[in-house]
């Protein structure tokens, strides 16, 4: 059974070790069997794909694509999502508590 990771898909993380140290991004995918995660904009690799004629209307596909590679989960730190507080909601709850109208 795969181990659970301290981050999950969609979490905001910061890279704490390696060539991309200090970079922040969202987790795109988790690979629990390998203890790795894919973070957007981190560990960019080039992948070569063979030219084929399988595209729409026989279009050629292939060439060099740049994509994110997986990094070890121990090299990332989970960050807290900063969501701005809604002032209107705070004022409304304060009025409801005191029972006063503005």
Automatic annotation (TrEMBL):
Role description: One of the proteins that surrounds the polypeptide exit tunnel on the outside of the subunit.
NCBIfam families: rplX_bact
HAMAP family (alphabetical): Ribosomal_uL24_B (MF_01326_B)
Full protein name: Large ribosomal subunit protein uL24
Record keyword Ribonucleoprotein present: yes
Complex and partners: Part of the 50S ribosomal subunit.
Family as reported in the entry's similarity comment: Belongs to the universal ribosomal protein uL24 family.
